[in-house]
């Protein structure tokens, strides 16, 4: 069971490995395709309707990020980011948030700098083993791309 505070105001997340299973599908023309779990998409809707701020900070650029930005009118969609901790810190400053008011969810070593910014680092069950031993990390029961994001949303809404 995830332990989250009622003081949380921002849920920031990586994309690949959280909303997806981390796989990259290539067709014969080498076009990339990613599978996104609809339960996680509904989680974004529930999160925003409940009044929480939401941010995606991804190392990749993708039209899928634009889909989220447009579908949910999200201002804080950041793609092609190598320094996730810096971007998350800037978002926190912009909204005047402290570390205990923010969740960051990520699955790989490039998320560790963002974990360092928050009191509530969370990783999906199938995260990289290095991430899963990060101090104070909470691990979801579900894997990335299989409802892990939604699991955290529901835990937050019920905290």
Automatic annotation (TrEMBL):
Which Gene3D superfamilies has this protein been placed in?
HAD superfamily/HAD-like
Subunit field text = Homotetramer.
- What keywords sit in the KW lines? Hydrolase, Magnesium, Metal-binding
Molecular functions per Gene Ontology = hydrolase activity, acting on ester bonds; metal ion binding; N-acylneuraminate cytidylyltransferase activity
The reply to whether Phosphoprotein figures as a keyword in the UniProt entry is: no
What name does this protein carry?
HAD hydrolase family protein
For activity, the cofactor(s) needed are: Mg(2+)
Q: Which SUPFAM superfamilies match?
A: HAD-like (SSF56784)
Q: Does the keyword Hydrolase apply?
A: yes
Q: Which InterPro entries match?
A: CMP-NeuNAc_synthase, HAD-like_sf, HAD_sf, KdsC_fam
What family is reported? Answer: Belongs to the KdsC family.
User: Where on the tree of life does the source sit, at the highest rank?
Assistant: Bacteria
């Amino acid at each position: 069971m995830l332990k989250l505070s009622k003081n949380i105001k921002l849920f920031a997340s990586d994309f690949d490995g959280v909303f997806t299973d981390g796989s990259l599908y290539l067709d014969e023309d080498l076009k990339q395709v990613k599978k996104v779990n609809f339960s996680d998409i509904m989680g974004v809707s529930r999160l925003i309707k409940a009044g929480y701020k939401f941010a995606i900070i991804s190392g990749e650029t993708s039209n899928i990020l634009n889909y989220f930005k447009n579908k949910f009118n999200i201002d804080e969609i950041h793609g092609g980011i190598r320094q996730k901790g810096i971007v998350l810190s800037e978002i926190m400053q912009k909204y005047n948030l402290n570390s205990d008011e923010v969740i960051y969810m990520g699955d790989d070593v490039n998320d560790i700098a963002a974990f360092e910014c928050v009191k509530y680092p969370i990783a999906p069950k199938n995260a990289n083993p290095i991430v899963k031993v990060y101090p104070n990390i909470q691990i979801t029961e579900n894997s990335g791309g299989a409802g892990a994001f939604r699991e955290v949303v529901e835990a937050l809404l019920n905290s």
